[in-house]
Design brief:
This protein is mostly helical and 146 residues long. It contains eight helices and no strands.
Length: 146
């Protein structure tokens, strides 16, 4: 199944969950009464529900708000929420204060210096990954703050 059809299924299910009949006319009226931009057409809403189109991000945010669902879950499914939670958990538990302080300092650098530091880090990562795959486990030097 393609992304548009999967989105349409999630949209229809969210409408039912919100107590709406999953019909274009119903969604059109509710959507246009809450959307601050140019009104959408019956055909556009119909295409969303048939799996022929996915709305733009600004419209997706309004839809999600109206239906009481997270925008990323409406657009990409529940696995998107799980992936975000896993990344957040990894960031919260796997990164020390010193590493966060380093990231903050990095983000305050001018773009050209950030690009240079990024290239250095990625080069170190590539060398490390190549060493891991070629020679097995390498000994790593102890890190400060651990």
């Amino acid at each position: 199944m393609d992304n548009k059809m999967e989105f349409a299924e999630r949209l229809r299910a969210a409408m039912v969950q919100a107590g709406m009949e999953p019909r274009p006319g119903v969604l059109l009226q509710v959507f246009n009464s809450h959307y601050w931009g140019r009104s959408v057409t019956f055909q556009a809403v119909s295409r969303w529900l048939k799996g022929e189109a996915i709305p733009a991000q600004d419209k997706l945010l309004v839809l999600a708000s109206l239906l009481g669902i997270e925008p990323e879950v409406l657009r990409f499914g529940p696995q998107a929420r799980q992936a975000l939670n896993e990344r957040r958990e990894r960031w919260e538990t796997g990164v020390s204060y010193l590493e966060r302080e380093t990231f903050d300092a990095f983000l305050q650098l001018p773009p050209e210096q950030r690009r240079l530091i990024r290239e250095v880090i990625l080069t170190f990562h590539q060398v490390h990954a190549a060493g891991q795959s070629a020679g097995g486990a390498e000994r790593s030097a102890p890190r400060a703050g651990k």
